[in-house]
């Protein structure tokens, strides 16, 4: 008998991640709640993480599976180690990381032991903005704005109506805040404590837990 047991249901989960392109980079936002079933158990869980020099990863779904994905991606693992060993001054960009995550999610799905996450991957490399997502079974796409969970139903219609290619940073932040406010009102798992991050060419800016927004009212 295999020592590995397939988990059929997630236990501790995070809700929606919303991200969009603006004229200089990528904006991404998620709240910091993690629910145990329908119980709001944790209120300071970071669900976004910088990956390398160019990429930002956000996740909804099972928190422990997201931590496993981060272990795949961190420097102690082969993914980043092989990239650094070339020592050619180049590093993996968001498109490469997105492709890798697609393979990881699809591989686990084929083993009937999926990672229970929907992932959002955004970044800027060589002046090119990239934003895509991957589902728990490896379905993936690239778009100008993406959302996971209830955000697909509640935030995407707002983004379709109000997003445009020349969106400024300030207007992008306001648009994200509008989406997160709607999610707070309509999603029982959402809270008013947010983590919001910005990837901007040629700089990478990751706002840590110290810059969490105030309450949405």
UniProtKB/TrEMBL annotation:
GO CC term, one of those recorded: nucleus
Superkingdom of origin: Eukaryota
PROSITE patterns (alphabetical): PROTEASOME_BETA_1 (PS00854), PROTEASOME_BETA_2 (PS51476)
UniProt signal peptide: none
One of the Pfam families matching this protein, by short name: Proteasome
Stored Gene3D superfamilies: Glutamine Phosphoribosylpyrophosphate, subunit 1, domain 1 (3.60.20.10)
Principal subcellular localization: cytoplasm
Gene Ontology terms describing biological process: proteolysis involved in protein catabolic process
Compartment(s): Cytoplasm; Nucleus
Keywords: Cytoplasm, Nucleus, Proteasome
InterPro entries per record: Ntn_hydrolases_N, Proteasome_alpha, Proteasome_beta4, Proteasome_bsu_CS, Proteasome_sua/b, Proteasome_suB-type
Annotated family: Belongs to the peptidase T1B family.
Subunit structure: Component of the 20S core complex of the 26S proteasome. The 26S proteasome is composed of a core protease (CP), known as the 20S proteasome, capped at one or both ends by the 19S regulatory particle (RP/PA700). The 20S proteasome core is composed of 28 subunits that are arranged in four stacked rings, resulting in a barrel-shaped structure. The two end rings are each formed by seven alpha subunits, and the two central rings are each formed by seven beta subunits. The catalytic chamber with the active sites is on the inside of the barrel.
Function, as annotated: Non-catalytic component of the proteasome.
Name of the featured protein: Proteasome subunit beta
Originating organism: Hevea brasiliensis (Para rubber tree)
């Amino acid at each position: 008998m295999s020592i590995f047991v397939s988990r059929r249901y997630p236990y501790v989960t995070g809700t929606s991640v919303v991200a969009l392109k603006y004229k200089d980079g990528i904006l991404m936002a998620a709240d910091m709640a993690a629910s145990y079933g329908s119980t709001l158990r944790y209120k300071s869980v970071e669900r976004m993480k910088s990956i390398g020099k160019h990429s930002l990863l956000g996740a909804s779904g099972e928190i422990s599976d997201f931590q496993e994905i981060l272990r795949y991606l961190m420097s102690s693992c082969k993914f980043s180690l092989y990239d650094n060993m070339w020592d050619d001054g180049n590093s993996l960009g968001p498109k490469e990381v997105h492709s890798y995550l697609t393979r990881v999610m699809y591989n686990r799905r084929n083993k009937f032991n999926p990672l229970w996450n929907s992932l959002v991957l955004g970044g800027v490399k060589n002046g090119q903005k990239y934003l895509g997502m991957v589902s728990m079974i490896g379905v993936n796409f690239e778009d100008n704005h993406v959302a996971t969970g209830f955000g697909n139903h509640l935030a995407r219609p707002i983004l379709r109506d109000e997003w445009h290619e020349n969106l400024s940073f300030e207007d992008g932040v306001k648009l994200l805040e509008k989406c997160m406010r709607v999610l707070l009102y309509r999603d029982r798992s959402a809270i008013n404590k947010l983590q919001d991050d910005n990837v901007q060419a040629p700089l990478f800016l990751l706002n840590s837990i110290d810059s969490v927004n105030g309450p949405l009212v």
